[in-house]
Specification:
Layout lengths: L1 H19 L2 H10 L2 H9 L9 E5 L4 H9 L9 E2 L5 H6 L5 E5 L3 H6 L7 E4 L4 H24 L23 H32 L2 H5 L5 H31 L8 H23 L5 H18 L11 H7 L3 H14 L4 H33 L1
Parallel strand pairs: 1-2, 1-3
Antiparallel strand pairs: 3-4
Helix pairs in contact: 1-10, 3-8, 4-7, 8-10, 8-11, 8-12, 8-14, 10-11, 11-14, 11-15, 14-15
């Protein structure tokens, strides 16, 4: 047993040196855990910010001018006042996301106690802005109209006092979500790529035959690749989380970093074994890339890191529960966002451990057969 562990440690060292000797892979690891995280966190936003809006003011009243003046940064760019004939060209070209049409006699009808209508045209292809932006514009119009009619900024006492408290992200800042989830997604993607490319690299360089004449077993070779590449990914993700996300972007980490590392190790067992399993079906690096690409995309899009799992069809939710990514995303969100302890996340850790053992067993069988075929 001890001799086997010693051989695995020696092989792991060889794998680690081989990885460091590959400048392309080292550059990819550094890039995805630094520049890519910052780019996604600062560039991908779900809030309404600097949306382009135009207003067709056919009333030219004090109330209509008050509404136009209330469409201000940072939610919107300064509103353009356009003619009705400019609506379609402006929206067809993508220049305006929102066009507000204020009809004639709007102020007069409002003062007379009637219920005038305002039309808001929305470019719904801009999904990140369309829904929330339309709600903000409605709120602005209602607020300004009520304040104008009462000649006061006090709109009266509402029948219900609605108090909204946002936990874990009080300012609803999407960067807090996207930065952490980008790290989580990169962990899964690189784990598959690194372990798979490690085996393909052995084949292409012809060093797999050298391993076969050494006093090592296929299982030890497999575990060495998993341990070495998994350790690199866990270390890189931890450094990214602390240095880039927490220190660089100023995003708080609510839970235990040690617990996150423990969960990451359990996740590594299954996802690195998956990468190695995929590599056993490929003979060259291009083949491995084409084989792993659909797997990575499915795990990336359907694990719950980009869209909530609850919005997916029931059958798809059931299928995704058999993938380690789904449970790792739920685990990471609970620990890093909500500050959950092991008493809350042990079910996810248990499932990741079970899936890891199952994937290792399947990978062991396939890997041993592949190595034996090289003999």
């Amino acid at each position: 047993m001890l001799s086997s562990l010693w051989r695995i440690a020696k092989l792991s060292g060889k794998e680690f040196r081989s990885l460091l000797a590959d400048p392309v892979l080292v550059a990819i690891i550094v890039y995805v855990f630094t520049v890519a995280v910052v780019q996604v966190a600062t560039g991908l936003k779900f809030e309404v910010e600097s949306a382009q809006v135009a207003v067709v003011d056919e009333d030219h009243s004090d109330l209509s001018r008050r509404i136009v003046a209330s469409l201000l940064p940072p939610l919107f760019k300064t509103a353009d006042v356009i003619a009705p004939s400019q609506i379609d060209p402006g929206m067809d070209s993508g220049r305006y996301v929102f066009v507000v049409e204020i009809p004639p006699k709007f102020e007069a009808e409002a003062l007379a106690g009637k219920t005038p209508s305002i039309q808001i045209n929305v470019d719904a292809t801009a999904m990140a802005l369309a829904g929330n932006g339309a709600v903000y514009i409605q709120q602005i119009i209602n607020r300004e109209t009520a304040a104008f009619l009462t000649r006061s900024d006090q709109t009266g006492v509402a029948p219900v006092d609605l108090v909204v408290r946002s936990k874990f992200n009080p300012n609803l800042n999407s960067m807090w979500f996207t930065a952490v989830m980008e790290v989580i997604n990169n962990v899964a993607i690189l784990s598959i790529i690194l372990t798979g490319s490690a085996l393909i690299r052995e084949r292409e360089h012809g060093t797999i035959e050298h391993l076969l004449v050494m006093p090592v077993t296929p299982v030890e070779i497999m575990l060495a690749k998993i341990v070495a590449n998994g350790a690199v990914i866990v270390g890189a993700s931890l450094a990214s989380l602390l240095l880039v996300v927490h220190w660089g972007l100023g995003i708080p980490i609510a839970g235990s970093v040690t617990l996150f590392v423990a969960g990451s190790i359990l996740f590594m067992i299954s996802v690195t074994a998956l990468g190695l399993l995929l590599a056993t079906f490929a003979r060259t690096m291009p083949q491995f890339g084409l084989l792993s690409l659909p797997v990575i995309i499915i795990l990336y899009l359907l694990s719950g890191s980009t869209t909530p799992l609850e919005t997916m069809p029931d059958w798809l939710q059931f299928v995704m529960k058999f993938t380690p990514n789904t449970h790792f995303v739920a685990f990471a969100q609970a620990v890093l966002y909500r500050g959950a302890g092991i008493e809350q996340v042990w079910p996810q850790m248990l499932v990741m451990a079970v899936l890891g053992v199952a994937t290792l067993a399947l990978c062991r069988k396939r890997f041993a057969a592949t190595i034996s075929a090289q003999d």
